[in-house]
Specification:
322 residues, alpha/beta, seven-stranded parallel β-sheet, five-stranded parallel β-sheet, 29% helix, 25% strand, globular, binds flavin-adenine dinucleotide, Electron transfer flavoprotein subunit alpha/FixB family protein, electron transport, transport, ETF_asu_C, Rossmann-like_a/b/a_fold
Amino acid sequence: MSVLIFADQVQGKIKKAAFEAVQYGAKVAQQLGTEAYAIVLGTADNAELAALGNYGAKKVLQVADARLNEVESGVYAKVIAAAADQEGANVVIFPNNFDGKAVAPRVAARLKAGLVAGAVSLPDTTNGFVVKKNVFSGKAFANVNITAEKKVISLMPNSFELEKGDATATIQPFAPALNDSDFKVKVTSVETVSGEVPLTEAEIIVSGGRGLKGPENWGLVEDLAKALGAGTACSRPVADSGWRPHHEHVGQTGLTIRPNLYIAIGISGAIQHLAGVNGSKVIVVINKDPEAPFFKAADYGIVGDAFEVVPKLTAAVNKLKQ
Ligand code: FAD
């Protein structure tokens, strides 16, 4: 028996959410008295792979096939299920990010496993295998007992602090037979958004809403984000109006984020917006309306005009950095 963790990478670099999943998987393995192994698909730097050992992976299965450099959920599921069979893994863990959400259910189907998506706690194994997960867009939790022998779990990013150790993992090649016919789609080009912090990885996010009046005022958000080394996000109407790109839209119909600090500027705090951000550790709201619903969800609130408050805040942050 073992615990297998899918560690996804982008351009050879392991994602932060994958390190979190490995650390989580190592703790699950400890609970079960077994070992945690990671699997990385596509070509990645050996140092990156060995670093998975810092978070508890004893061994990393490396599937160094360049055809796997882009995530394709069908073929990824085939490879990961084959690895789980080879390693006798009864528990397979994914980060609950875009890649993990796409691949985990397919692996669960192949292994005939029970799946819990969006886990936020370690399993309670005193009476079954009970995992706590987010439900209703983060408004509530459910405790789910996985009764199937095999279990697949996807872990909500930022649910646990990373604790880096100094062990390194051994790297073992894994080469399941893959035919070209296994690859059903081909990525023809990738558009990267350069110079920005990816929202699902960002520790700090500065977000703007309709209160900013128009795209010409986004310098306010960007300047504060730059001062804090933060990513930038927005409410849905802002993206719908074309003020900002859709990949910045957070909420029920956009991205779910869980940064350490979320600064919301000129956003009312509608329930659909909160659904995507209420897992943030600290929420700061800047709004000129003292009755804005967002203040109820805020840890810190500033009642004031964003056009006056935000430049002062940015200047203060820049001064502190000097
Ligand atoms: P508004 O509601 O217009 O609020 C603007 C705020 O700015 C106000 O609180 C105002 O007091 C403040 N303000 C104005 N001027 C200033 C100033 N100078 N300084 C400081 N503050 C100022 N929304 C999302 O964000 N994400 C989603 O995923 C999402 N999904 C949805 C799904 C469904 C099915 C539906 C029905 C709605 C969804 N919405 C979503 C929309 C949501 O209901 C709200 O309409 C939206 O979040 C409001 O955006 P806003 O706060 O930017 O704008």
